[in-house]
Design goal:
single chain, mainly alpha, rod-shaped, Antithrombin, Serpin_sf
């Protein structure tokens, strides 16, 4: 169970910046258009 929690935390650490970057890119494209 603990290993599963650790894996989930690692996924969140990886996905969070990725989501922020994607959201920023979409916002920037929207502003340009």
């Amino acid at each position: 169970q603990h290993l599963a929690d650790s894996k989930n935390d690692n996924d969140n650490i990886f996905l969070s910046p990725l989501s922020i970057s994607t959201a920023f890119a979409v916002t920037k494209l929207g502003a340009c258009n």
